[in-house]
Each structure stands twice: as structure tokens, then as C-alpha cells.
Amino acid sequence: RSPLAQGNRADPARAHCCASLPRRLAAMVVKGLKKKAAVKGKKSTLKFTLDCQQPADDNIIETKDFEKFLTGRIKVEGKTGNLGDKVTITREKSKIHVSAEAPFSKRYLKYLGKKYLKSQQLRDFLR
Question: What is the pLDDT of residues 27-55, one digit of tens each?
Fold first, then answer.
């Protein structure tokens, strides 16, 4: 037997303190779960703007092709070509606007942009 277990049996006040500890921890866990569920219901829309004005003016890339590339490559829930209502891509002149629901990152758009430049063999040319 451990000295701690023997100490609890020897001192009844200390045993009472340790006996109520699991109940207190259980109450704290339940409170935390309720708060997370309330925050989870809120969805935010993220908006990104890709400005392709300089390369488009120099006739290096076509924004129409880049927009088509993004619509074909963006993954939603692990599937490509499944944009639905969660992601919308619009183009006006040389700017591409991407609006998406919360779990979407700027880093993913940067990754796809670099992938597009690589496929057009422009990755090393445009920095």
C-alpha cells in the first residue's frame, strides 16, 4: 500500500476532501462542454481577394484560367469539385474573390496559387 492511501484512512478529514474531488472535477467538465457547444453553433464567413492585376496586365497569366483552376482544385470536406454553398469564387477584371465558411485558410489559397504557377511553368519566373 502507498503511504498516501494509508494517510487517507488515518485522517478522516483528509479522506472527505479527496472523496469530493471527483464530483468537483465532473461538474467542471460539464460546464466546459456546454460553453464549447454554444460557440460551435456560430459560423463565420471568410473573404479573400487575389489581386492578379500586374501579371494580367503583362499578359503572363489569364485570370479566367486561374479561376477555373481554383474551382476545380479547392477541396471541401475532402472532395474536389464539391464547392456547394460553402465556397464561392467570383472574378471581376483582374481580381478573384473567394468567400468561404469558417474552416478555410489563407495558406491553402497560397498553396493552390503556387501549384497553378508551377503547372504553367511560371513558379520560378514570378516571385
Answer: 444 443 433 333 455 578 999 999 999 98
**For residue 103, how far is the Cα from the chain centroid?**
3
pLDDT tens digits for range 104-113: 889 999 999 9
Give the CA distances from residue 104 to residues 16, 44, 46, 67, 80, in Å, rounded to whole numbers and listed in that order: 50, 10, 8, 17, 14
Question: Distances from the Cα of 97 to the Cαs of 44, 62, 120, in angstroms?
Answer: 16, 15, 21
Look up residue 60 and give its three cell numbers.
Answer: 503572363
DSSP string, 56-124: HHTTS--HHHHHHHHHHH-EETTEET--TTTEEEEEETTEEEEEEESS--HHHHHHHHHHHHHHTT-TT
